[in-house]
């Protein structure tokens, strides 16, 4: 895939970039290793000052970088601006909280005595240069939620971003440089996916994190495993959205629309499978379908646009194939199910609701990465849980119920890294984020995330 900015609203190639040469990659690896030797000795106060400086820059430049994001991958301008603001918040949160999250831990006095020590403690120390392989769908946020904790922990970063967001990738590298981080602390590598293996195998790179497809995760994990290097993976999701009889149907349906089409439907944590109790199925389906049908598809730069184009022609075609497969096997589309009229240029697809989905259809198992929802009817909580878990993924989940007993049951039995009651999945710096099954392993954000790339060290003295 060429490294290029292609505007998904009209398919026009705006700018192309040459990949780094082998010599340039070698220099960046050397710079990262050198930077780590010095940066690891900085204080939390100094790291926080630098990260807050980067947050200040991003806050001032949010409007401009948001336009770049929208131009490169098609999310609405309002969504891009919100993404930038979220990044600023996360950077400031880690600047304020990292020292406490990584404070030394002291075992109980009785346990220290029993171990034969005069004293013992647990320290969290940085690992070194970490390779971050990041996707295009949240081109700022996915990077910052790695970079902020990694830099505060004393690590340095090497970013291999998606090839269709090169200007955003370059902005990120420049942002940390202008904030005052020493050269080599955070660098963007404009390289093809074929270069990832050699970078990851380099002994100066100590670990990797990847957000992306299951295939990309398998590839990186296999190389890292062969090299015995730590990885964190956040992969796909086919998140269930369960609606039970006690739910506030108006709020559930209204939120369901947003949960499905956020980021033009291109989000791993977007709700995709809507599993509704038969007692409220018809009422919910009517509200939800009406809400999806009312969305405005259009130019993502325009303020009245709800859903912009998909990020690429291939992504639009893949989504279209999933829907066509379902429709030819008997599913129905009470709204959508096709490319919108009047958009001969660009990679648009109508917000779509599918009913009558069966397990023989590809969309029942595969992630629909676009504004397409599958709607299911179930008899009770048992069937809802069985269907919700009938997926190779386990990223997040949403449940609408006012019944406390049902909440306990769903909390115990849903196979997901997150369970959100009476609301939609959202990430926050203070809450761990990640999945189970083929959605990956490890956690980002919170104290769990910052410790993923630390050497948890026992210090013991007799």
UniProtKB/TrEMBL annotation:
InterPro entries assigned to the protein according to its UniProt record, in alphabetical order: Ald_DH/histidinol_DH, Ald_DH_C, Ald_DH_CS_CYS, Ald_DH_N, Aldehyde_DH_dom, ALDH_GabD1-like, GABD/Sad-like
Domain Aldehyde dehydrogenase residue range list: 3-459
Signal peptide (from-to): none
Stored CDD domains: ALDH_SSADH1_GabD1
UniProt keyword list: NADP, Oxidoreductase
Protein's UniProt keywords contain Zinc-finger: no
Annotated family: Belongs to the aldehyde dehydrogenase family.
Name of the protein described by the UniProt record: NADP-dependent succinic semialdehyde dehydrogenase
Species the sequence originates in: Streptomyces smyrnaeus
Top-level taxonomy: Bacteria, Bacillati, Actinomycetota, Actinomycetes, Kitasatosporales
């Amino acid at each position: 895939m060429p490294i290029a900015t292609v505007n998904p609203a009209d398919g026009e190639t705006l700018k192309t970039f040459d990949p780094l040469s082998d010599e340039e990659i070698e220099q960046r690896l050397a710079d990262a290793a050198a930077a780590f030797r010095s940066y690891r000795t900085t204080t939390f106060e100094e790291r926080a000052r630098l990260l807050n400086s980067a947050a200040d820059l991003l806050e001032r430049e949010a409007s401009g970088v948001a336009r770049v994001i929208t131009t490169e991958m098609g999310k609405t301008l309002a969504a891009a601006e919100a993404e930038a603001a979220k990044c600023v918040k996360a950077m400031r949160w880690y600047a304020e909280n990292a020292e406490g999250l990584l404070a030394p831990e002291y075992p109980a006095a009785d346990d220290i005595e029993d171990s034969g020590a005069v004293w013992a403690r647990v320290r969290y120390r940085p690992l070194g240069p970490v390779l971050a392989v990041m996707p295009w769908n949240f081109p700022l946020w996915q990077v910052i939620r790695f970079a902020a904790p990694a830099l505060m922990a004393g690590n340095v970063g090497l970013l291999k971003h998606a090839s269709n967001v090169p200007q955003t990738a370059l902005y990120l590298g420049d942002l940390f440089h202008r904030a005052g981080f020493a050269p080599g602390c955070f660098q963007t590598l404009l390289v093809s996916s074929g270069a990832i293996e050699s970078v990851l195998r380099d002994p100066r790179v100590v670990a990797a994190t990847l957000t992306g497809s299951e295939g990309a995760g398998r590839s990186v994990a296999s190389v890292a495993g062969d090299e015995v290097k730590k990885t964190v993976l956040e992969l796909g999701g086919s998140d269930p959205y369960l609606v039970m009889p006690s739910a506030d149907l108006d709020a559930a349906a209204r939120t369901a629309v947003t949960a499905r089409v956020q980021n033009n439907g291109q989000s791993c944590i977007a709700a995709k499978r809507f599993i509704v109790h038969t007692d409220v199925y018809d009422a919910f389906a009517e509200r939800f379908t009406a809400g999806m049908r009312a969305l405005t598809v259009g130019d993502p730069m325009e303020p009245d646009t709800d859903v912009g184009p998909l990020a690429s022609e291939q992504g639009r075609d893949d989504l279209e194939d999933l829907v066509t497969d379902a429709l030819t096997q008997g599913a129905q589309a009470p709204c959508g199910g096709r490319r919108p009229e009047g958009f001969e240029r660009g990679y648009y697809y109508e917000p779509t609701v599918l009913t009558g989905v069966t397990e023989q259809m590809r969309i029942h198992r595969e992630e629909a990465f676009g504004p397409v929802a599958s709607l299911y009817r179930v008899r009770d909580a048992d069937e809802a849980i069985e269907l919700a878990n009938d997926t190779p993924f386990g990223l997040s989940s949403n449940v609408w119920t006012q019944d406390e007993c049902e909440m306990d049951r769903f909390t115990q039995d849903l196979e997901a890294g997150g369970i959100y009651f009476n609301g939609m999945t959202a990430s926050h710096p203070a809450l761990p984020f990640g999945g189970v099954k083929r959605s990956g392993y490890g956690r980002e954000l919170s104290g769990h995330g910052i410790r993923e790339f630390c050497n948890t060290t026992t210090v013991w003295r007799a």
